[in-house]
Write a structure and sequence with these properties.
The chain has about 400 residues and is an alpha+beta fold. About 65% of the residues lie in helices and about 10% in strands. The strands form 2 sheets. It has a 5-stranded mixed beta sheet with strand order 2-4-5-7-6. Strands 1-3 form a two-stranded antiparallel sheet. Strand 4 and strand 5 form a beta hairpin. Helix 2 runs antiparallel to helix 5, helix 8 runs parallel beside helix 9 and helix 9 packs antiparallel against helix 12. The relative contact order is 0.07. About 5% of the residues have low confidence.
């Protein structure tokens, strides 16, 4: 298709262009019907008048018509002598009959065109009312129109899809939060009752167990607060030029004892001596810490943890790999969805995590202009790769 043809095609997709053409076509058809009715009534009047004429006058009038003198003085004289009634009265009747015939046809066609054009709007209005009542399963119908109307209905349905997805996520989040809060609260309640009743001795070991449950609740609340503040657009980032190599080394030094206690072989593969990156140091440390914590909780049956840092002219590449069981099947499509550890793998698999660590990593990295992805490590476990722009 040529460029001019494409432009004309796009112009015809405009709803106001198609609506205007439809109305113009309706008007032209109505005018044509009116003209046909007037002509038919005039012809019927002439034939009725012609049959009332004497045969000699009929022949004379035919001769005048053949000679093109149907409006001449003699023709006017014949009409004046033999025509019964007012000539203008017949013309008026022809217009009245034409209007009587054309009016319902024009109204029908006009309403039909309007109905076709506005059907998607009516469908969207009805769907919007049901969405306002909480029914996110409804979708608008595009009807038989094309162009802008189809695009508008498609965008409306995409919006409804997003609302339905958000509602499902909201319900899942509410269920997951209640699940996460219920378990440690139930443990605390039961053990505190046991301590008060003298069933369990109030010794240091018991207090440490209770403190661990309280810390788990605190981590969950902190993680939820971080995510909610970020979603509200109020998470403050203080991005400055910093050395990513030094940040990685400091973070791993803080985990050194815990990694050793788990019997995990840590390999830090840092390919550069220094890597200046504009970042929020505290938030990047939090993201890396969450990835290491994820290995300590969910890949404890493995014995290997690798933290690699490399760089290209455009970006810094930080990866955390393990040789654990890898991502379960239901997490591979979206490993950063909330509460997947809690809901999909159960409390035992959760290892004390809130199920929000990976979501927070994704959020923190994205807010700093980077990306994070998950795939399979060289030893069959999981590898998380963070990419941050340089400069």
């Amino acid at each position: 298709m040529s460029a001019d043809g494409a432009v004309r095609g796009r112009a015809l997709d405009r709803i106001w262009v198609r609506f205007g053409l439809s109305i113009a076509a309706t008007v032209l058809v109505t005018i044509g019907i009116l003209g046909a009715c007037v002509f038919a009534f005039a012809e019927w009047q002439y034939r009725s008048f012609y049959r009332t004429l004497p045969s000699m006058v009929q022949q004379e009038l035919d001769t005048l018509n053949d000679l093109g003198m149907e409006d001449g003085p003699r023709a006017v004289e014949i009409y004046g002598q033999y025509w019964k009634g007012d000539l203008l009265f017949g013309e008026k009747w022809s217009l009245v009959i034409g209007l009587v015939v054309c009016l319902p046809i024009g109204l029908f066609v006009g309403f039909w065109v309007s109905r076709i054009v506005t059907l998607p709007l009516a469908s969207m209005a009805e769907a919007a009312q049901r969405v306002a009542l909480g029914d996110f399963s409804v979708r608008a119908e595009p009807g038989r129109t094309g162009g802008e109307m189809v695009e508008m209905v498609r965008d409306f349905n995409h919006m409804t899809d997003a609302l339905e997805s958000l509602e499902r996520e909201r319900r899942a989040t509410a269920a997951a939060v209640s699940h996460e809060l219920r378990t440690p609260l139930a443990v605390l309640r039961a053990r505190l009752h046991a301590v008060c009743d003298g069933v369990i001795a109030a010794d240091e070991r018991e207090f440490r167990g209770l403190l661990a449950e309280v810390e788990h609740l605190g981590r969950l609340v902190d993680d939820l607060h971080t995510l909610s503040v970020a979603e509200a657009g109020r998470l403050s980032l203080h991005c400055t030029e910093g050395d990513l190599v030094q940040l990685v080394q400091d973070t791993l030094q803080g985990f050194a004892q815990r990694i050793a206690d788990h019997g995990i072989d840590l390999q830090a593969r840092i390919a550069v001596d220094a890597l200046p990156v504009r970042m929020d140091r505290d938030r990047m440390r939090q993201a890396l810490s969450n990835l290491v914590e994820n290995v300590l909780r969910h890949a404890v049956n493995g014995a290997w943890l690798e933290v690699a840092l490399d760089a290209t002219p455009q970006e810094a590449v930080l990866s955390v790999s393990d040789d654990g069981p890898g991502l379960p099947e239901d997490m591979r499509q979206n490993p950063f969805r909330r509460f997947q550890k809690s809901l999909d793998r159960g409390g035992a698999a959760g290892g004390g995590g809130s199920g929000l660590g990976l979501s927070i990593v994704h959020m923190l990295v994205t807010l700093q202009g980077g990306t994070v992805a998950a795939d399979t490590s060289v030893r069959g476990g999981t590898r998380f790769t963070i990419r941050l722009p340089r400069g």
